[in-house]
Structures are given as C-alpha cells and as structure tokens.
Sequence to fold (223 residues):
Amino acid sequence: MHAAHVVAAISLGLLLACGDEGPTAPAGSAAIAVVNRTSGDPLETDGYLVRLDGKDHALPVAGSIAVTGLEAGDHRLELTGIAAGCEVSGANPRVVHTRAAEQAQTLFLVSCHAPGTGRVFVQTSTYGKAEGDYLIEVNGDSGRSIGTKDTLTIGAIPAGPATLRLIRMGHCVVAGRNPRTLIVTLGSTIGSIFKIRCDLPQSGESQLRARLAGPPLHPPSPE
Fold:
C-alpha cells in the first residue's frame, strides 16, 4: 500500500467491519460510520437502506457500515426500508457533520411491534425442586419454555383478553389461578407472576393458594 494510503487509513481509524464501500479513500477524506440497533417484535429481517447524499447503502439489521471517501462538511442521511409497525427514534432524515481525515458516527434506533398487539411479561417463582422447565401457553398456543425461576416476554399478542396457562409442572402446583386471563392493551406490556410449590403436601394446597397469590407484575413498557 502506498504511504499516502497508510496515512489515510490511520487517520480515519478502525472502520466498522462491513464498511468497505469501494476503493481506499484518498488522504484527508472523511467517513461516516452508520450503526443500527433494532428492538421489539417482530424484528426486521431483510435489512435497511441508508440514503447518504442521494446514494443508497445497504445496512444490516443490528449491523453497521462505514461510508468512506466523503468530502468534509454536512451530509444528509435517511434510513429507509422500514417495515410497517417499526419506527425510528430521533431525526430521520438527519444531518451529520464530518471533518477531513476523521470518522463521524450516527446511530439509528428502530423499535418494532406488530400493529394491533401488545406484550405479556411472565415471571415464575418456584418453591422446592421442580422436575424441569415449564411451558407457558397463551390463548391455547403450542407453548414456550420458561424456567422454574425465570422471566419471559411474549410479543405480538392481539390486544384484548389473553389467557395464560402454565403446564408441564409434574408434581408441582400453581398458587392462584391457572389458567388466568389478562387484558392486553395496544402497544403496552402487562405481566403476571406464577408462584409454584413443589414441596406442598396434597392436603395443604388449598390453604396456600390464597396466601401465595399476588397481583400481576407490571414492568415498564420496552423502549
């Protein structure tokens, strides 16, 4: 590599892994690192496009690119290819200022949720020794595995009544209602704690149900 190219590479620093956008940038040029973080359910899977000064660059979901060989100054960036139910936090499009021989960085935060749905947050608390993990059913689905002392957030639940049922408990019993019904609100998270006894004599089950049952847990809605 020519000496001028080595100087340019050192000046620009360590660019992000998938940021090779063509030939080596000339010495003194600027660069922009573009990073994506996507959260929620369902997640984007087919990636985005970043439009920089009118030219599109592919950006993977939860990935990054580095666009090099730019002139110093202000550059207009816009994240496109965003699916329905997803939105970008912050300005979009936005202007990023660059300086010669330096790399600027910008982060696009995207949150997604299926339209017309909310989330259910489930927590298990087990007393005694269980035979293994449980299954939690929502509205009679095939169920999802959850540990004996665990938490699980289930997304894309249609707004309205949702019936939760903890199964595959072996000799253990749930204190409180099982199944139980929660009201899922649009775009929000509602939670419930399942308290399970695995050391409970058969004769004592009814007395402990009322004492151990607690109100639903309402964690903060995800950002």
Summary: The helical segments are 3-12, 205-212. The first strand starts at residue 30 and ends at 41.
